[in-house]
Amino acid sequence: MSLEISNAQRAEVLTQALPYIQKYNGKIVVIKYGGNAMINEHLKEQVMEDIVLLHLIGVKVVLVHGGGPEITETLNKIGKESVFLDGLRVTDKETVDVVQMVLAGKINKSLVNLLQIKGGNAIGLSGLDGHMIKAEMKDERLGYVGRITGVDVTPITDLLEKGYIPVVSTVGCDEKGNVYNINADTAASHIAGSMHAARLISMTDIAGILRDKDDPASLISCIDINEAKELFDTGVISGGMIPKVECCIDAIHHGVKKVIILDGRVPHALLIETLTDEGAGTMVIKEKKDSHEF
């Protein structure tokens, strides 16, 4: 049964959102979106609707995306097995060609198209455009997996100034033109830091940082860097959460004020996080005394 609300209730909701709209107006928010959070098509449409709404109320949204599951699916179709080492995809020359095709082609353009359908004005970029994401080989055992050596966000800022939503796929290159597969969390962290973004929001397929990984009610709503280190040491942050939280901390060190690990499975999680008191994940900040700063 659908929940009917009156026009007065709609007006009340908008009024309650007003302080947040004022706070975010003109601010840069980098949204990392990818992996399993992109699989559900209905949720993907809601995420794009949220991004368009934030854009229309004056937030300078930058969408940075990965696409691991679709890369794996495409490799399977050509009969190539996906091999992972320490959570990173081993990327030979054939695999990096597929990564470039899937990320900079299929996924990037489908997200741009969906944003346009929802009323936004989006343009797709890859880390190769303007050599925006410079990289070098991270580890010979991983092949063409890149470590970021520099980020030039000029193409992104140019698009923002012209009123577009930049959609960035995370491939990079070196001075010789070699193409590298770049971890999307890492790329978003560097881009957000270089742009002095007010927020980096990392959309994932878990609730956030849990004290007990089996208990969603144990969600930690806010931690600072020192608390995060304690959670690493005690094993609360483990497995796939380790690189995500490390990227959050890197973003803070790069100058981002607040980083949110957001549950992308929650309908309209972006709006809940940005335009309400409730929030919808775990906020990572430099120090707890800074928590009341924007």
Quick overview:
The chain contains nine helices and 14 strands. The protein is α/β, with parallel strands linked by helices and 294 residues long.
What can you see in these coordinates?
This protein is an alpha/beta fold and 294 residues long. The chain has nine helices and 14 strands. It has helices at residues 7-24, 41-56, 68-77, 93-117, 154-161, 184-194, 225-233, 241-254, 269-275, and strands at 28-33, 60-65, 84-85, 88-89, 122-126, 133-137, 146-151, 165-169, 171-173, 179-181, 199-204, 222-224, 258-263, 281-285. An eight-stranded mixed beta sheet has the order 5-8-2-1-11-13-14-12, with helices on both faces. A two-stranded antiparallel ribbon has the order 3-4. The mean pLDDT is 90.
Q: Compute the number of structural domains.
A: 1
Order of helices and strands: HEHEHEEHEEEHEEEHEEHHEHE
Category by helix and strand content: alpha/beta
Low-confidence regions:
none
Strands ordered across the widest β-sheet: 5-8-2-1-11-13-14-12
Please describe the biggest sheet, giving its number of strands, its sense, and whether it closes into a barrel. 8 strands, mixed
Task: Look at the structure and name the CATH superfamily.
Answer: Acetylglutamate kinase-like
Shape: globular
Q: Helical content, roughly?
A: 40-55%
Radius of gyration, CA atoms, in whole angstroms? 19 Å
CATH class: Alpha Beta
Average predicted local confidence, pLDDT? 90
Distance from N terminus to C terminus (CA atoms, Å) equals: 38 Å
